[in-house]
Structures are given as structure tokens and as C-alpha cells.
């Protein structure tokens, strides 16, 4: 969720045809329906993290202004940029950034089913995770887009010493192999999804899709499935998931030269939408797909530029490998979890008091 150029691509990888080593995981948490927003913390501050031209609202402000709400017709969660207020010069536009109250450690899988992702000139959305003391504890970007590009990207950001070798992934579009936040202005080790339906208008036209993140001792993997290609292992809404049935991931960062256990701590899952900032507003990046001046020509004014700047999410489901301390801190017991999976959740609950990232 930090600056990294989508184009040009630095490397081409050969297509990998062998699935990544996998495991079976049991569901421990579900964010869905009318209770979707119950266990999240909203940032409640201007964007002092990536210098975006937004103010991230508190939970009460976001809900009352309907920048975060559950659509009663579809039961899907909506998170969006303010598209109705008039913003004058030197002011910022309202938006949302929220993270789970629970952190998930090695031995976790999280699956996000989305119908729509934010896009448009100046728009910088992400579905990602990090540990509270970033860059210590690392960052996993499952989905990130910017402006009007046609493909999303995924990747890692870590302390120095994490590099990528031996990747087993379907994408041949590898931007970089050094994950250190100190390298290449914190570009991270980024892979671009070759599927044009992974972002923007094409994502919406395809009915959205599903992002799967596996945070395992053997490495980190990300899958993206456009709606028509979502496998039965996911559409069945089972209380368990076997990642070996998902095929080759789009992006893979094996532990061979970047140990998941060494460089990554339990992660808060995060949705956010900022505007302009270090990435979308960078002159060269903005000019790739948009014209004009990012803040002046898009953030300012009546907000009609942001009619497509919203997430629509059907669910986020989190799974755990039995025997791991997956849930580090929770504000409430897992909801809507089958009895068998709940037993795993309770057996893996650790009571360590870990401060959440504000």
C-alpha cells in the first residue's frame, strides 16, 4: 500500500504450472451481512500515512454519512469516497480506512468476495494487511490499483533482508524482487495481475471476483478469480478450505529467501481508499492514465469524479490451520462459525494484548 510503479514491468517470469504446497484451513471469522462493520476500527484522521488528499472518517461519521454502510437490498458492505460534497482549495475529501480488530498470524487464509472495487483518476484503493509497528512485522498487499490502470497488483513490504527467489506463480509480470521498504523508495516486491478484469470497470463488468491470501510458513500466496472462474471450493461456502484445490496462485513469495515467520507478524486486515498521494498523485504515475492535475482537477469540486470510487464487498472470511495461534487479539468471539470450526478458533485463541494500529 505504498508507492510502486505498475509500469513499466521490470521482469518477466516463466509460467509456473505446479501448485504451491498447500494445507487445509478451518473458518474462524466471517465479516458479512448486517454485522459486517462490527469488528473493525476506522482510522479517524487525515491521510498522514501516504499523503493522500482525504480525511479518513471515524466509524460513527462514516456510518452516518453513508461512506460505510450495508446495503439492505443486497446485504453487501459498501465503503466509498464522498461523491456529493463540494471541496474547496486546501481542503480534503472524506473517505474511509478501516482495519480488523483481530490480527491473523502465520497459518491463516483470508478470502474477500468483492462485487466492485474503487477506480477513477486520482483514486488509490487497496485491500491489504500489516502489523502494528510497520515496517516491523511486514505488509501483505492482496489488491492495489491506481487511477485508470487496467490491472491490479499485489506484493510485500518488509524490513531489509527479504528477497524473492523461486516463485511459483501464474503471473509473468514481476516488478521487483527486493521487498525491503528501504529499496527503490519502498517499491516492495510487486507482481502485477495479468487479468484486466482484476481492476476497474472490467472488474465491475465481470461481476467482480474473489481474492484469496494464504499466509503460511512455506510462504505467502495470492489468488484472484474473476466471477465466472471462482472455484467450487470457494462458492460452496464451506467451513474449511484446501488451498491445493485452487491451482497456481497469481503471486507467490516463498519462504526460501524471505521467511514468513521471520519477516511477518500477525496482520490486521485493511480496506482503504485514498486520493492522489504518494502513488496515484505521483506525476509520472498519474500521467500514465489521466490528464490534468490530480488534486486540482479531481479532488476539488462537486465530487462527481468519485461515482465509481467504492468497494462493494459480499464477505471477508478468515480461515486458520489447526494448531497455530492465528487469532492474536479480538474484540468479540467469531461470528457465524460452524461448531467444528469454532472449536478450532477457541483452541487457537491467544490472549496476548497487542495494541491495534490507529
UniProtKB/TrEMBL annotation:
Q: Which domain of life is it from?
A: Eukaryota
Keyword list, A-Z: Hydrolase, Signal
Q: Name one GO biological process term.
A: glucan catabolic process
Signal sequence span is: 1-22
Looking at the keywords, is Chloroplast present?
Answer: no
A single GO molecular-function term is: hydrolase activity
What name does the UniProt record give this protein?
A: Glycoside hydrolase family 16 protein
Give the organism, scientific name: Hypholoma sublateritium (strain FD-334 SS-4)
